[in-house]
Amino acid sequence: MTELEYFFEDENGLSVVYQLISFGVGEPWKIVRDGELIGSMKKWKGTWKLQSGDELSDDLLIGLTSHIDAQHFNCLPGEISSRWPNLVEKVVLRSDTAYMIICKEGINLNSFQAIFSRFVPGLLKDEWAINFQVFNHDFSDDFSLLAKPLVYKKESFGWEEVDR
Known about the structure:
The chain is an alpha+beta fold. It folds into 2 domains: about 1-70, no CATH class; about 75-150, Alpha-Beta Plaits, CATH 3.30.70. It is built from 3 helices and 11 strands, in the order βββββααββαββββ.
């Protein structure tokens, strides 16, 4: 399950908090205000469609969908695939904290584990750890990695890595 919060200023200048909830990859996003389900929407072939809840203004709908699209977990599969195009066959988003990666045929999984473990934390932009389950092409071998995003702090002599 993925849950986001979106703050919207209505026509009266009041701030309203909306919860956006998706129960799985490919599932519609539920729009909740004050604990009440007011609609749902889904992205279909690159275009957002409202499935229920005809009371939403265009400004609100654009804000909600832009907020979902702006989240880093929407970009990470493409970044992983483009970083290792000769090694990675597919990246599947399971949730905002879990991904499944399938390698191409002929890839040495131990070698890829060493490379992936070292460099994937640098790709993470969210503040939470991500669990990666990585499989070889026929799912006969795998490894798991809990990756934490890198955080650096400015020191007088340069940047120093900080453990979270």
